[in-house]
Amino acid sequence: VQLQASGGGLVQAGGSLRLSCVVSGSIFSISVMNWYRQAPGKQREFVAGIISTGSTNYADSVKGRFTVSRDNAKNTVYLQMNSLKPEDTAVYYCNAAPPPFSETYWGQGTQVTVSS
Questions:
Q1: 10 Å Cβ neighbour count for 3?
Q2: pLDDT tens profile 12-36
Q3: What angle do CA 36, 107, 49 make, to 5 degrees?
Q4: Distance CA 68, CA 89 (A)
């Protein structure tokens, strides 16, 4: 299983970015797909998640600004990030958690930098 994240970059505060994560292998459609982020000097933290049926969950810090979605036909999960803030600056990682959730898989991360 491989996860390939893309879409990061440098954006001004208030701007938008869309991250994508393509998953190889057959686990995508059954997996909970998550986005995490890690800022310099901080622990990795949960950002958003989406289950196979489309139900979503968000960290309080991004609710109303970020939207997670998935396209099972393309084995791809997205993170639309709007109204970006400097504190959103981090490396963003996608994560796949297939049942029975005894093992998860991580992408390589994509850098998001928000300038003030």
A1: 22
A2: 999 999 999 999 988 888 899 999 9
A3: 35
A4: 18
Average pLDDT, the chain: 96
Encoding tokens for residue 115?
Answer: 């300038």
Token digits of residue 45: 């933290």
DSSP readout, 48-94?
A: EEE-TTS-EEE-TTTTTTEEEEEETTTTEEEEEE-S--GGG-EEEEE
The helix/strand/coil state of 7 is coil
Question: In this structure, which amino acid lies at residue 46?
Answer: F
Half-sphere exposure of 114 (CA within 13 A, CB side): 18
